[in-house]
Design goal:
The protein has 148 residues and is of the alpha/beta class. The protein has a single domain, classed as D-tyrosyl-trna(Tyr) Deacylase, Chain: A (3-Layer(bba) Sandwich), CATH 3.50.80. The chain is 23% helix and 39% strand. It is built from three helices and eight strands, in the order E-E-E-H-E-E-H-E-H-E-E. Strands 1, 2, 3, 6, 7 and 8 form a six-stranded mixed beta sheet that branches. Strands 4-5 form a two-stranded antiparallel sheet. Helix 1 packs across helix 3.
Length: 148
């Protein structure tokens, strides 16, 4: 499982002109599910996202997590995180999980993040989404469960 995380002042996702998920200060997570990902990958990624210390403490150091700050998470499914661009100029997505499995594990990631105590807003799986955000920092970090 992969996630691209952005610390944000605000973020929202729209589908057909309607806001379906929105947060104030917190984290936007673009979440991709790969071939062979499991519940173990979901648990690892949700725990890592919740505990990752990318928010400033009183001394201005990145030393606080979503859990420490009570900030929100906006999770958006993103199969293109599994783009393979090694050959040619058109990305291949064969490394992404099949849609049914990807949806199940994406939803499980959101549920697991909530179970850890996070406020979670979501996009709509497989929808044509428009994501808007104000990156804070900017701070952008990538995670991959294969590297754990």
């Amino acid at each position: 499982m992969r996630a691209l995380l952005q610390r944000v002042t605000w973020a929202k996702v729209e589908v057909d002109g309607q806001v379906v998920g929105e947060i104030g200060p917190g984290m936007l997570a673009l979440v991709g599910v790969g071939q062979g990902d499991t519940e173990e990958d979901v648990e690892w990624l949700a725990a890592k996202v919740a505990a990752l210390r990318i928010f400033e403490d009183d001394q201005g150091k990145m030393n606080r997590s979503l859990l420490d700050t009570s900030r929100a998470l906006l999770a958006v499914s993103q199969f293109t995180l599994y783009a393979d661009t090694r050959k040619g100029n058109r990305p291949s997505f064969v490394g992404a999980a099949p849609p049914d499995e990807a949806k199940r594990l994406y939803e499980r990631f959101c549920e697991q993040a909530q179970a850890l105590g996070l406020t979670v807003a979501r996009g709509i799986f497989a929808a044509d989404m428009k994501v808007s955000l104000l990156n804070d920092g900017p701070v952008t970090i990538s995670l991959d469960s294969i590297a754990r």
